[in-house]
Design goal:
Layout (H helix, E strand, L loop, with lengths): L2 E7 L6 H14 L3 E5 L2 H7 L2 E4 L26 H13 L4 E6 L1 H14 L3 E5 L15 H22 L2 E6 L6 H9 L4 E3 L7 H13 L5 E6 L7 H12 L3 E5 L11 H20 L4 E6 L2 E6 L2 H4 L6 H10 L2
Parallel strand pairs: 1-2, 1-4, 4-5, 5-10, 6-8, 6-9, 7-8
Antiparallel strand pairs: 2-3, 10-11
Helix pairs in contact: 1-9, 2-3, 5-6, 6-11, 7-8
The chain binds 6-O-phosphono-beta-D-fructofuranose (F6P).
């Protein structure tokens, strides 16, 4: 193997740059050339590429976002789009590809490998941490810390004004960010899609807290919760117990920012391992971290298996909130 390609795809996540850096420097260390593909599969279709050297990735380990840009490509879903992408790969003599992204991106990677015979290794990167086959995806730790910082700040105001705050965090249809930031931030309750939400029960616990002297409360709500978005939940709670409520939707604040050490290290380990695995002849798989060990898993796990949150975290949060 003489030349590999690397791209980032789907929602950006903090640590993607650290992963690109790891791929580039490991590949060069192993005597390979590296082609960076801009804007994910869209760049592959359009031939938007550049050769990367060690200096191309200088200083990016601490930067959020992705220097290669990212996109969610609809065109790549068509056979025509895929043909164009494969032509770019062949024209540039790329012999293996590393795809850094979430489940949709890994699906695209799998198509290239299985249907078009391009050796691909996937690296899980998503703030949602919803990718099966790895304990953590790149960007999750940073997103949790970002949400936590917001929760801590809001706690000051909630306490000073004796209010109920409802904070909505991202996660698509999973509750990892909510559960981790809620537990770390001492939230009174955490509403996640993996656990049935009973608003009467939520209100009962809030009232009980008041009886025990709590003058302020924070509910952390995952965006995918069945009870609705934070504003809707706020309206429903107001009707039931009439508290003074404020709602904060953290949104894309959680996607950017300098990656924390855990994400930089995860990205460096996974990116480096992905290069070594391609050289060894591995393909069609995702590299992940399981019990702190680098593990390969079938790429299909990313969209065929549901990664469950640990509900013991929820139980713990409730004991701590008492
Ligand atoms: O998958 C990452 C994520 O930030 C989800 O948490 C969120 O639901 C979605 O992407 C938002 O996507 P977009 O940036 O396209 O609005």
């Amino acid at each position: 193997m003489k030349k590999i390609g690397v791209l980032t795809s789907g929602g950006d996540s903090p640590g993607m740059n650290a992963c690109i850096r790891a791929v580039v420097r490991r590949a060069i260390y192993q005597g390979l050339k590296v082609i960076g593909i801009r804007r994910g599969f869209s760049g592959l279709i359009e031939g938007d590429t550049e050769e990367l050297c060690s200096r191309s990735v200088s200083g990016i380990i601490r930067q959020g976002g992705t220097m290669l840009k990212t996109a969610r490509s609809e065109v790549f879903k068509s056979i025509e789009g895929q043909k164009k992408a494969v032509k770019t790969i062949k024209d540039l003599c790329i012999e293996g590809l590393i795809v850094i992204g979430g489940d949709g991106s890994l699906r695209g990677a799998y198509t290239l490998d299985r249907d078009w015979d391009i050796p691909v290794i996937g690296v899980p990167a998503s703030i949602d941490n919803d990718i099966a086959g790895t304990d953590f995806s790149i960007g999750f730790a940073t997103a949790v810390n970002t949400a936590l910082e917001a929760i801590d700040r809001i706690r000051d105001t909630a306490t000073s004004h004796e209010r109920l705050f409802i904070i909505e965090v991202m996660g698509r249809s999973s509750g990892f960010i909510a559960l981790w930031s809620g537990l770390a931030g001492g939230a009174e309750d955490i509403l996640i899609p993996e656990r049935k939400t009973n608003l009467d029960e939520v209100c009962r616990k809030l009232e009980e807290g008041r009886l025990h002297g709590k003058r302020s409360s924070i509910l952390v709500v995952a965006e995918g919760d069945e009870a609705g978005g934070a504003f809707e939940i706020g309206e429903k709670i107001k009707k039931k117990i009439g508290y003074e409520i404020r709602v904060v939707v953290l949104g894309h604040l959680q996607r950017g920012g300098s990656p924390v050490a855990l994400d930089r290290i995860l990205a460096t380990r996974l990116g480096s391992a992905a290069v070594d695995l391609l050289i060894k002849g591995e393909r069609g798989k995702m590299v992940g971290l399981v019990s702190n060990q680098i593990k390969l898993s079938p790429m299909e796990y990313a969209w065929k298996r549901k990664k469950m949150v640990d509900l013991a975290f929820y139980d713990l949060s409730q004991v701590m909130a008492s």
